[in-house]
Amino acid sequence: MANIDTKGLGMAREAIQQTMALVLAGGRGSRLMQLTDTRAKPAVHFGGKFRIIDFALSNCINSGIYRVGVVTQYKSHSLLRHIQAGWSFLRYEMNEFIDLLPAQQRVDEVNWYRGTADAVYQNMDIVRDYGPKYVLVLAGDHVYKMDYANLLLDHVRRGNPVTVACIEVPKEQASALGVMQVDEEGRITDFVEKPVDPPTLPGRPDTCLASMGIYVFDARFLYAMLEADQQDPHSCRDFGRDIIPAVVQAGQAYAHAFSQSCVRNRGSGDACYWRDVGTVDSFWAANMDLASVIPELDLYDEHWPIWTNQKQLPPAKFVQDYTGQSGSTKNSVFSGGCIVSGSHIQDSVLFTGVRVHSGCHLEQAVVFPDVVINRGCRLKRVIIDKRCEIPAGLVVGEDPQADARFFHRSEQGVVLITRSMLQARARILAQEAEVQTDPA
């Protein structure tokens, strides 16, 4: 409960005990391209050893919220397995739990979750059974550290039925988010979801006030809003498109500035860190930040740890190559189980169990778990998906046309490599070699 005054401490504790968090983790995550072909976006690996959803769940636990529901839908097996294996330490007999809520047609046995609001509505009977006074709705696909106790205290003190957490963002990023305008008292006066031309802050034409996808509702008010929304045949069943605009129109929604509850880097007054890692480029950039000398996101803060599920692996190991030559490393992250043989690695993040063979050069590489990189590869500005085996001598990041022929290349030149892409590349090259050697 960082930054809470003594007077508000008791109020915050009482609010926390009366709160249930719902983490919305069912989105398709299509902008991450092939990274979400087999997994939901919240289950995507991040930062060397974590999954994206670990940040929202860790924020809950660190804030003292031990009643959590995780709402899943698309390609949820990897996510469910991760939560079951890594987040089973809560004690149900102590009223602590992480409840998994996959889409199961609880309401009409016809429709799956049709939107974020419908996902909560279809589990409303479960939420009601737990009897919370407040419901904290969270997106499960953002990377940030936040003390929800401060948010809840702000909600209780204002006495309003809905509070929306907000953050200032550059205008060019706001089109992918919900954008709001507020009055001097913090009341939200206008809210538009993913606008083409986002409204900016007064006197600041380059900055918008955006929703973080984090809402606090008085529980009874939420139930009533969801029931009313179900009666609207034109609704998209979505918080950003329907529920929040309706509450704003009624003058009942207030904004909570992220600066009031963000968990900053230790011993510094750094800006608040929050990232929607929803594209290949933004995902790569957020991982690259962790390899910098002083990252904007502090993962080494023992007072606000990020919990996860991880294998019990030996420490990372660096050895000479097969000729006895040593490699080098600079500004890189290496996770447990990595073995690097005489290679040069710079500004990179290597996840658990990665094996880099002799004579490789990696620069600005994000390498997912259990990847094998064979001898003599040169890889720059890449994301390599889990369990890929990179063929010896592969060069990526030097010829844009060659990269785009076999792999996904983003607008900013980040190359995504997956197992299916490597398999397709091998087939094409084999066919081409067969044509060249055919006597006919």
Describe this structure in words.
- With 440 residues, this protein is an alpha/beta fold.
- The chain contains 12 helices and 27 strands.
- Strands 1, 4, 5, 6, 8, 9, 10, 11 and 12 form a 9-stranded mixed sheet that branches. Strands 15, 16, 18, 19, 21, 23, 25, 26 and 27 form a 9-stranded mixed sheet that branches.
- It is globular.
- Residues 314-417 form the Glucose-1-phosphate adenylyltransferase/Bifunctional protein GlmU-like C-terminal hexapeptide domain.
* Beta strands, count: 27
Oligomer: single chain
Strand content bin: 25-35%
Helix-residue proportion = 25-40%
Binding site for alpha-D-glucose 1-phosphate: 113, 178, 193-194, 211
GO molecular function: nucleotidyltransferase activity
Subunit structure: Homotetramer.
Organism: Pseudaeromonas paramecii
Summarize the structure.
The chain has 440 residues and is α/β, with parallel strands linked by helices. It has helices at residues 6-17, 53-63, 77-86, 116-121, 124-130, 148-158, 171-174, 219-230, 239-249, 280-290, 400-406, 419-437; strands at residues 19-24, 45-46, 50-51, 67-72, 97-102, 134-139, 143-144, 162-170, 178-182, 188-193, 207-218, 253-257, 274-275, 317-319, 328-330, 333-334, 339-341, 344-346, 349-350, 355-356, 361-367, 372-373, 378-384, 389-390, 395-396, 408-409, 415-417. The strands form five sheets. Strands 1, 4, 5, 6, 8, 9, 10, 11 and 12 form a nine-stranded mixed β-sheet that branches.
